[in-house]
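Design job #97: recover the sequence.
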């Protein structure tokens, strides 16, 4: 009886080889699940960025409905920005109520927050424009303010820079940057982005009026960000992507479904 009982217990136990095999299988399953979860999280973040870029574009179009044109990107054209402000507010008394410094020093990296958000209060919250036609930039809280045209998420906002969701605000050049189409063209040599660390160029210097080109948004504006790595890669030929650096391929834009790498496949 004792021998039979011992044999039954022996048959119920694992050998060392079987135990190691089970451990190995569990390890493989865990790694597969971890990889799948990681890819799912990255895809969800990219989807959120793409959705927000589209929302920013819609906000720019709403701005154009309210004012005479899309927000300027001030790509070296300060006079153009001043003309735009005059069209926005024809009765503005600029001598007595000058525009905040952010409106005179706007760059492609700050244009979206500046124009879509309007002046900021003491807490750095964009509050839109005052209904006072003589002083549209006054900060006092009044009824009937114009805008803001986009609800900027505080955690993604750093001064007049706005970062995509899921990207660290401290990243060197990963914020959204904005360029306005000029009559369907982005070939203006001033349309370059040279801010951030390291310096990058993010728009084309060639004529981009190409029918069906997936690399541009000729009818309105380009809104580009550094993707999940928080860095805008180098490259000037947005019409073809031929000279883009490897860091550029994970960048995203409002005129793409996914990343620049997806667009070239």
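Job complete. Output follows.
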């Amino acid at each position: 009886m004792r021998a039979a009982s011992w044999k039954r217990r022996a048959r119920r136990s694992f050998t060392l080889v079987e135990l190691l095999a089970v451990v190995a299988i569990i390890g493989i399953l865990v790694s597969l699940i971890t990889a799948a979860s990681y890819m799912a999280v990255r895809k969800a973040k990219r989807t959120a960025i793409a959705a927000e870029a589209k929302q920013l574009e819609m906000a720019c179009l709403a701005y154009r409905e309210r004012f005479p044109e899309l927000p300027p990107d001030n790509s070296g054209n300060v006079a153009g920005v001043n003309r735009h402000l005059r069209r926005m507010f024809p009765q503005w008394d600029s001598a007595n109520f000058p525009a905040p410094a952010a409106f005179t020093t706007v760059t492609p990296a700050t244009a979206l927050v500046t124009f879509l958000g309007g002046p900021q209060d003491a807490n750095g919250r964009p509050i839109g424009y005052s209904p006072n036609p003589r002083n549209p930039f006054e900060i006092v809280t009044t009824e009937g303010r114009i805008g803001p045209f986009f609800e900027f998420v505080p955690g993604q906002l750093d001064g007049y820079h706005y970062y995509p969701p899921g990207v660290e605000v401290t990243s060197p050049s990963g914020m959204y940057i904005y360029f306005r189409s000029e009559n369907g063209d982005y070939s203006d040599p001033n349309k370059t982005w040279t801010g951030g660390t390291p310096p990058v160029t993010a728009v084309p210097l060639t004529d981009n009026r190409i029918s069906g080109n997936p690399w541009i948004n000729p009818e309105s504006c380009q809104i580009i960000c550094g993707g999940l790595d928080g860095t805008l890669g180098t490259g000037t030929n947005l019409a073809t992507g031929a000279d883009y650096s490897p860091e550029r391929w994970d960048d995203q834009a409002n005129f793409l479904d996914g990343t620049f790498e997806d667009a070239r496949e």
